[in-house]
Specification:
Structural class: alpha+beta
Largest sheet: 6 strands, mixed
Strand order of the largest sheet: 1-5-6-4-3-2
Number of domains: 2
Helix content: 40-55%
CATH superfamily of the largest domain: Aminoglycoside phosphotransferase (APH), C-terminal lobe
Radius of gyration: 19 Å
Length: about 290
């Protein structure tokens, strides 16, 4: 069992909502993903299992090398990936926006070819989320409506990421034009952050990606001008992504729309204050739309 203190780690190299990433104190080829103290240990263990599934499927090269403890927090030791996100690739060269959107779609379509029968069913996860305090704003009628909607959705055993967006794809290798023309260095795409992985109908995962592109919070603290640029780029990226995923799989918009409310429930369970009011309104709108189509 590996134990460190925060003084052993230095400054984080990356920060997310539920964790921070640090350089490994003794292995330059590894990093420590250190979860915040309120993340239950069973969720950390589950992510380690999800990573093993993703590694076996060839979706990431960042293997998990066990658990470490820093003060009262739990972390995972992972292979270091030297590269930038798919978002950064597109930002550095807007001409890569189309290619990057298609790449995201191809990675997700490949993920959805993988069976993951041992993971938790996405429908069960949504029903569990409805019992959490963050969803207590729903009336008893709205709760019953949501549960009925979820129970009517199709079963599935495909690997779902449920936080799948271009920041969670790391690109390693040479991404210069020479590489694309046949350089010896090969570009590799690694899907990261498997904490939310479940199994089920691929349309559930696509609905979650729709939500992230269309509804999720932008990076806080941005100027209005910067937000406008990012919104425009995100919209174009999404259109390229969705056109390619639809072409590859034949999935229709109706199948994705059926998972809109469950995707909102899962996101609301994160209880992000800056998103709360907007997503609550979106969930109620999705339930009203479902009512109208019955």
């Amino acid at each position: 069992m590996t134990r460190w203190t925060l003084a052993d780690l230095g400054d984080p190299v990356a920060t997310g909502r539920t964790s921070e990433v640090y350089a490994h104190p003794g292995r330059p080829d590894r990093v420590l993903k250190l979860f915040h103290g309120d993340v239950p240990g069973e969720e950390v263990e589950a992510e380690a299992e999800h990573i093993d599934v993703a590694v076996r499927a060839g979706l990431t090269g960042a293997r998990c090398h066990g658990t470490a403890y820093v003060d009262d927090r739990t972390g995972l030791v992972l292979d270091r990936l030297d590269g930038g996100s798919l978002t950064r690739v597109a930002e550095r060269n807007p001409l890569q926006l189309r290619r990057s959107g298609r790449t995201l779609a191809r990675l997700q379509a490949r993920m959805h070819e993988v069976a993951a029968p041992d993971l938790t069913d996405v429908r069960a996860a949504v029903l569990h989320a409805l019992d959490q305090a963050a969803l207590s704003f729903l009336s008893p009628i709205e709760q019953a409506h949501t549960r009925g909607l979820v129970n009517a959705l199709p079963d599935g055993d495909r690997l779902l990421h449920l936080d799948f967006h271009p920041e969670n794809v790391i690109v390693t290798g040479d991404t210069t034009p020479a590489d694309r023309a046949g350089s010896a260095d090969r570009v590799v795409h690694h899907v990261i952050d498997w904490q939310t992985a479940l199994r089920g109908d691929p349309a559930a995962d696509v609905a979650a990606t729709f939500l992230l592109f269309r509804d999720a919070e932008l990076f806080p603290g941005l100027s209005l001008a910067r937000k406008a640029v990012i919104v425009a780029g995100r919209r174009a990226f999404f259109e390229f992504y969705w056109a390619e995923y639809r072409r590859l799989t034949g999935l229709g918009h109706g199948a994705v729309a059926a998972w809109r409310a469950p995707a909102l429930v899962l996101r609301l369970a994160w209880d992000i204050p800056s998103e709360r009011d907007r997503l609550r309104a979106a969930l109620r709108a999705a339930l009203a739309a479902d009512d109208a189509h019955r």
